[in-house]
Design goal:
With about 350 residues, the chain is an all-beta fold. The protein has a domain at about 265-360. About 5% of the residues lie in helices and about 50% in strands. The protein is built from 2 helices and 35 strands. The protein has helices at about 265-270, 300, and strands at about 5-10, 10-20, 20-25, 30-35, 40, 45-50, 55-60, 65, 75-80, 80-85, 90-95, 100-105, 110-115, 125, 130-135, 140-145, 150-155, 160, 170, 175-180, 185-190, 195-200, 205-210, 235, 240-245, 250-255, 260-265, 275, 285, 290-295, 310-315, 320-325, 335-340, 340-345, 350-355. The strands form 9 sheets. Strands 28, 29, 30, 31 and 32 form a 5-stranded antiparallel sheet that branches. A hairpin with a 5-residue loop joins strand 12 and strand 13 (about 110-115). The radius of gyration is 22 Å and the shape is globular.
């Protein structure tokens, strides 16, 4: 099963799925729906998040704007910032008596305050009952129901590792990967380490770092027999397997058993003139396929640049089932996204490519 290219939409800086539609931020800082039925000319210079049928805009000058589902302004001001957390909560930072405080906003737009914290980033995880974030060297859990801090986990207990420069480093969290079996919080750390922590108690449950036969001997072999970078793994939609797709490999961590293994996809890549899967921190996924970016054979296409493509990988056979090459264009760090049987990919030229899923013949 593949996708049919429908159209390109140019002059797009970013986009989100909101109000059952696709809302785009153009390069002039204005918001519009893809079909142009909604628009808001407010000159956004910054970032924006969608949550609970509203759009929250952060400007680089410290101001903010909140829009409703008609893209009409319902609040604006200074001293607030918003960041992505989950489908249940939106992260919010705000000034209170000139002190930076933090909280999360629920779907009733109530702010659950976690107070003044020594935070330096927006790396976080939340579900209906817990909000986990980083403070100094620790992971901290805030119990949403009890409005209290349940536990903290100090990353220093993990020890240290040697990086590619031969320097000894402490482990730090790069991102939260999700929750397995409603209990194990999966966390990607530097040093090619994934850990799981019991979200109820803060107890360290499992670690994954060793992968026999994977990696190379460059940098003195510090990456040999280790999994690929942990922040490149993604929890699948069934929430029972972690996948990493990069280079010529797919690496699989089966959470039910704890087994780790990898498969070389060079054969199916060669058949499609693909040399590498681009390293990424995420992929689009449906019931049957992963969708990611490939770097193609420059000599075959006789180009003066490395051609790139959007491709699908079958989740059962691990074969490449569909390829779309971007001609005279490419992809930097933007991720493919799925929404309502359509696949969206933003490219380096600020062009959004839109594809429609083709149904199998009956």
């Amino acid at each position: 099963m593949g996708f049919l290219f429908i159209k390109k939409v140019q002059d797009i800086k970013d986009f989100v799925f909101c109000f059952e539609s696709v809302i785009k931020l153009d390069c002039q800082g204005d918001l519009h729906s893809i079909d142009q039925s909604l628009s808001c000319d407010i000159d956004i210079i910054g970032s924006f998040e969608s949550f609970n049928d509203q759009i929250f805009i952060n400007s680089w000058n410290g101001s903010y704007i909140i829009l409703d589902n008609k893209l009409s302004i319902i609040e604006k001001g200074e001293g607030k910032g918003f960041f992505k957390s989950s489908q249940f909560y939106l992260g919010i930072q705000y000034l209170q008596n000139e002190i930076l405080c933090e909280g999360i906003m629920n779907r009733d737009f109530e702010i659950l305050d976690v107070g003044e914290r020594l935070k330096k980033n927006n790396i976080n995880f939340s579900n209906e009952s817990s909000y986990c974030f980083l403070e100094n060297t620790s992971i901290v859990n805030f119990n949403i129901e009890l409005k209290s801090f349940d536990w903290s986990f100090d990353l220093k207990v993990l020890g240290t590792f040697v990086n590619e420069d031969g320097k000894v480093k402490n482990y730090v969290v790069e991102r939260f990967l999700g929750l397995y079996n409603d209990v194990e919080l999966l966390i990607a750390c530097n040093g090619r380490l994934i850990i799981s922590i019991d979200i109820n108690s803060g107890k360290l449950e499992r670690t994954w770092q060793h992968l026999e036969g994977f990696g190379s001997e460059i940098y003195g072999g510090v990456f040999l027999n280790k999994i690929p970078p942990a922040n490149g793994f993604q929890l699948n939609i069934d929430k029972n397997i972690l996948y990493s797709i990069a280079g010529q490999f797919i690496v699989v961590i089966e959470l039910n058993s704890g087994d780790v293994w990898f498969k070389n996809l060079e054969s199916t890549m060669n058949s499609n003139f693909i040399e590498n899967f681009r390293y990424s921190i995420g992929y689009a996924e449906d019931e049957s396929h992963f969708y990611t970016i490939g770097e193609m054979n420059q000599n075959h296409f006789e180009t003066d640049y490395i051609p790139q493509c959007l491709l699908s990988i079958n989740k059962v056979t691990f074969s490449i089932d569909w390829v779309f090459r971007f001609e005279n264009d490419g992809v930097k760090t933007e991720l493919p996204k799925l929404f309502k049987n359509r696949l969206y990919q933003l490219t380096s030229s600020n062009t959004l490519h839109i594809f429609q899923k083709q149904q199998p013949p009956t």
